[in-house]
Design brief:
By secondary structure, this protein is mostly helical. 77% of the residues lie in helices and 0% in strands. It has twelve helices and no strands. The chain has helices at 2-18, 20-42, 45-51, 56-63, 66-86, 95-112, 114-125, 129-133, 137-157, 167-183, 185-192, 199-217. Helix 1 crosses helix 2 and helix 10 (167-183) packs antiparallel against helix 12. It is globular and about 60 Å long. The termini are far apart.
Length: 229
């Protein structure tokens, strides 16, 4: 019996040595769900350890403490979103088409990652304390501002965009409806029904967000001429 009880522990330790990155990824995946569901205060290391291939000791070894694990989860969520944006090669596109692509991609990325939205909401409860400690997230966030800055400069130079469009303000304007679409889905749909959250409703809403941004930036933009995609 003693050997049977020791075997899983022995196998798990061997796994740690053979593929520590896989163990860390396993911990982060489970911790992401745990913190998104219960927040920092409600997330429990015991529950995370029970659902992973790691022990509490190994979680502390890799991440220091629960706050360190939560910060790593937050950084991972931002990295996933920014990696999605980094795959968008807009530098060679017409500025208007590039802006359309960035707005659609932001709307879709938020809609497809509700866990990211929940984690950002939780971090706002903590007044961005853990985001502020991160050395990674500020670097990740620069990439989308740089993309928008490039698109805005090219659009203005071509006489297509209003001059002096602020890429940071533009990012805020794109992110706000994309975030609200997910963060307030439960309360909005309970109050007003699921019409905007059907496949057709989301497609129409996404296009209206694109039109709203183009109307702010593109000189003479006419929403009636917009495509549906």
């Amino acid at each position: 019996m003693a050997m049977d009880s020791d075997t899983p522990s022995t196998e798990r330790k061997a796994g740690w040595k053979q593929d520590p990155e896989a163990v860390k990824a396993d911990i982060l995946a489970v911790a992401t769900d745990e913190f998104a569901a219960h927040g920092l205060s409600g997330g429990r290391i015991d529950d995370i350890a029970r659902k992973t291939k790691a022990s509490k000791r190994m979680i502390y070894y890799y991440f220091g403490d629960k706050e360190g694990l939560y910060q790593a989860v937050l950084e991972g969520a931002y990295q996933t979103l920014r990696e999605h944006e980094d795959k968008l090669h807009v530098e060679n596109l017409d500025p208007i088409e590039a802006l359309k692509l960035l707005v659609r991609a932001t709307f879709d990325a938020h809609a497809q990652t509700p866990i990211f939205i929940r984690l950002v909401m939780i971090e706002n409860i903590h007044n961005a304390d853990y985001l502020r400690r991160s050395m990674i997230i500020p670097r990740l966030n620069r990439s989308i501002i740089e993309k928008l800055d490039d698109v805005c400069k090219r659009g203005a130079a071509a006489g297509l965009f209003h001059p002096n469009t602020d890429p940071l303000m533009l990012h805020w304007m794109i992110s706000a409806p994309s975030f609200y679409n997910v963060s307030n889905r439960a309360t909005f749909s309970t109050s007003f029904g699921m019409g905007l959250y059907s496949a057709e409703g989301q497609e129409r809403l996404r296009q209206r967000v694109v039109d709203m941004i183009l109307a702010l930036v593109v000189i003479g933009h006419d929403p009636s001429q917009s495509d549906a995609g």
